[in-house]
Amino acid sequence: MTNSLTALFGGTFDPIHYGHLLPAIALAKEIRLSHVSLLPNHIPPHKAQPEATTNQRVEMIKLAIENDPILSIDMREITKSILDRPSYTIETLQAWRVENGASPGLAFILGQDSLLSLPTWNNWQTLLNYCHLLICRRPGYAETTNDQALKEWITQHQTKNIDDLHRHANGFIYFANTPLEDISATEIRDKISQKQSCESLLPPKVWQYIQQHHLYGA
Ligand code: ATP
């Protein structure tokens, strides 16, 4: 079985935390990925604009992954952001296919909360034409949905067979057995603004960076 499946983990990472890192590392192990690329967006389409600058979010990701060979950073959404418009995942995936062709495997990683919000994404039902979706569990978010279209779409494309992800370039949804990490960037920003410590929620160098740059009211 190959290890050539590219996995992109998109997000705002404002800031990056163990709720991103630990599931990503566990997922890589679970489905035999040689690495996972964190894909920071410049302008998130579905949420409030980040508090840290794009450059600061990128710096924090670099600090978080510097000693982990499984993790890397993919700057494509930052680079294209000169257009100053939202980073739509579907456009990123299409651009990746133009660059790499139809044959290589591509997977996009989502937390369970993001899966549930998928019907608000641009052209969400065509995402699987370009990639697989790998879903990480997240505390507080239901495993089922009342959205009928989403529910049917998941049933139609779900696989429990890891080999499907390696044998096909795109088209499957896989629910991973990743660890539950009850951490969110919102909670971290709120705690820091109230002068509470978040040392245990993110890597030490990211915590130091936040202090040094007085981010989130530190
Ligand atoms: P915020 O609190 O600002 O909304 P966040 O903590 O949800 O941020 P994002 O950068 O928006 O982090 O998330 C990027 C991706 O990581 C999304 O797919 C999200 O579902 C996933 N994710 C974030 N935190 C967790 C977590 N604790 N467990 C599993 N997945 C997570």
Automatic annotation (TrEMBL):
Catalytic activity field: nicotinate beta-D-ribonucleotide + ATP + H(+) = deamido-NAD(+) + diphosphate
The UniProt record lists the keyword Nucleus: no
Keyword line: ATP-binding, NAD, Nucleotide-binding, Nucleotidyltransferase, Pyridine nucleotide biosynthesis, Transferase
GO molecular function annotations of the record: nucleotidyltransferase activity
Pathway annotation: Cofactor biosynthesis; NAD(+) biosynthesis; deamido-NAD(+) from nicotinate D-ribonucleotide: step 1/1
E.C. code: 2.7.7.18
Chain coiled-coil ranges: none
Domain named Cytidyltransferase-like: residues: 8-190
A Pfam short name: CTP_transf_like
Top-level class of the enzyme under EC nomenclature: transferase
Family: Belongs to the NadD family.
HAMAP family: NaMN_adenylyltr (MF_00244)
Role, per record: Catalyzes the reversible adenylation of nicotinate mononucleotide (NaMN) to nicotinic acid adenine dinucleotide (NaAD).
Record-given protein name: Probable nicotinate-nucleotide adenylyltransferase
Organism: Orbus sasakiae
Gene name, Swiss-Prot/TrEMBL: nadD
